[in-house]
Write a structure and sequence with these properties.
Distance between the termini: 40 Å
Order of helices and strands: HHHHHHHHHHHHHHHH
Strand content: under 5%
Radius of gyration: 24 Å
Length: 318
């Protein structure tokens, strides 16, 4: 399986050769709306996440003093401050709106990669907007897949509820019985978490090609794309999973590069290196999955067309 995944990675690298700058700019365009709103929220002091983090730090400080009254007072004051922070809630709404742009921008990026791997003229950075008309369908696909994944995880979540049963049945008068019940409950909770995670990953792999199908066939609906992904992935989930596993080493190297850059040149340079590595890996992974998708198609649908590739040989003008 890992040997086969190496073929899709090779196809991705071959297609991206000479087009990495455009690919990175497209990947940045996908993330830019969310990144901008987060930066504005932090710069203006209206970041709800920063407020929650500061409140957590203050609560830990009060708890370390073992002053229950101080903990309660800090919690009440912090929650009142957060609830009264109108600007923070407005920024949360803005961040939600910008997050809704990510699905159709992602489809535009995938369509660009599909054209590139097929040998068709892929276009420039503006290709990220090529699937803007699929705004509603892209969100619908995310919601449908999220619901299906949740339903698949229900057995694991139900097993988690059973972890309360040993504690409920334990004899409260026996310390040994209570400890044994707590240990059993902890084991059941661990098994439930593993079961839910495994079922969730299996479901995600079933619908992993939904974005590919919708980007390739904009006339289809989100539910149809998800169902076609399910049919296309039948018997191939292990193969795609091995492709994802093959990127673990790259993400580990990314962490090492970010930490090294931060230690040598400071936090700002470390953040920039982290952003660049993240964009490059995102492009590489999506291109490899796109190569996998095209190989899953019938030969006449996924083959590379014959003819010159002038568009890929043009210089990128900035």
């Amino acid at each position: 399986m890992f040997f086969v995944s190496a073929i899709w990675k090779l196809k991705a690298r071959t297609a991206l050769k000479g087009r990495w700058l455009t690919a990175l700019l497209i990947a940045l365009s996908v993330k830019l709306p969310v990144l901008l709103t987060q930066a504005i929220a932090s710069a203006t002091g209206n970041s709800l996440q920063d407020m929650m983090a500061n409140l957590t730090i203050r609560l830990e400080s009060a708890a370390n003093r073992t002053d229950i009254a101080a903990v309660q007072e800090t919690l009440d004051a912090g929650l009142q401050q957060i609830m009264a922070a109108r600007g923070a809630w407005i920024m949360q709404g803005v961040q939600l709106l910008t997050a809704l742009m990510t699905p159709f921008l992602t489809l535009g990026m995938i369509h660009w990669l599909q054209s590139l791997l097929r040998g068709e003229p892929a276009g420039d950075v503006s290709a990220v907007l090529s699937r803007a008309r699929l705004f509603g369908k892209a969100i619908g696909l995310r919601l449908y897949v999220g619901l299906r994944v949740f339903l698949w995880m229900l057995p694991g979540l139900a097993l988690n509820l059973l972890s309360l049963l040993p504690v409920h049945l334990a004899d409260p008068r026996s310390r040994m019985s209570v400890l044994s019940a707590a240990n059993t409950s902890l084991q059941i909770t661990s098994l439930a978490a593993i079961a839910a995670a495994v079922l969730g990953v299996m479901a995600l792999l079933k619908y992993a090609l939904g974005d590919q199908i919708l980007a390739d066939h904009p006339e289809k609906g989100p539910i149809q794309a998800a169902k076609e992904s399910k049919a296309m992935m039948r018997g191939k989930r292990g193969t795609l999973f091995s492709l994802y596993l093959g990127f673990l080493l790259w993400y580990f190297l990314e962490m090492m590069a970010v930490n090294l850059a931060g230690a040598l040149f400071g936090a700002v340079i470390g953040t920039m290196v982290g952003m660049l590595c993240s964009l490059a890996l995102d492009v590489y992974l999506r291109a490899s999955v796109t190569a996998f998708y095209l190989d899953c198609l019938p030969a006449e649908a996924g083959r590379r067309p014959e003819g010159p590739r002038e568009a890929e040989e043009e210089e990128i003008e900035l």
